[in-house]
Amino acid sequence: MVLTLYFHPFSSFCQKVLIALYEGDIAFEPHIVDLGDEKSRAEFAAIWPLAKFPVLRDEANERTIPESTVIIEYLARHHPGAAQLIPADRDAALEVRRWDRFFDLYLELPMQKIVGDRLRAPDSRDPHGVSEARALLRTAYGLIEAQMAGKMWGAGDAFTMADCAAAPALFYADLVEPFGDAHPGLASYFARLLARPSFARVIEEARPYRKFFPQ
Asked: pLDDT category, 21, cuts 50, 70, 90?
């Protein structure tokens, strides 16, 4: 079995997949892509023309799998590891998928809007769009706060794909729109995520690139 992950350690969507791989103790070959390097980008685009990471290449099955959620689903079906990140029960699995989508769409995307705007030239920035993104994050924080009442993890008592999505999304979202003391349940959940060995490993691997995060 040869699984190759094309990724960058500082990308939150890549971190989501890395957490799943580490949770499952699944062997893979890491291939870091530098989109700012012409040669690295061209090599990656030859594998996946959209040049968006993460992408998993399964040589044994001759499959190229893009998108973080689809990669985790693919691993669960074709290369199951030590952790069951998607429950066998259909209703429980649906709840995991619901919160996986929630964290990607209502934390990741508005967070990336804010970060991306900081990288623009001053005359190209979108203050209205950033204001909308911040409002969406605050709404999402409130919904997570309600969701976490009486729960250990994002979709229930077990660590799942939803938590793989939540961990990096919350890490970066808190940097651009801190959730603070107003959301104690969310803060406690985030503390549990930070203490999870798989996520702690991801954070440490991303540390050399943290200087590139726009302040």
From this structure: very high
* CATH class given for the domain over 3-78: alpha beta
Residue 19: its pLDDT value, please? 98
Tell me, what's the pLDDT at 1? 59
Nearest to 175 by CA among 124, 127, 118: 118
How is 43-105 classified by DSSP, letter by letter?
HHHHH-TT--S-EEEETTTTEEEESHHHHHHHHHHHS--SS--S-SSHHHHHHHHHHHHHHII
Residue range(s) of every CATH 3.40.30.10 domain in the chain: 3-78
Domain 90-196 -> CATH class: mainly alpha
In the chain, CATH 1.20.1050.10 sits at 90-196
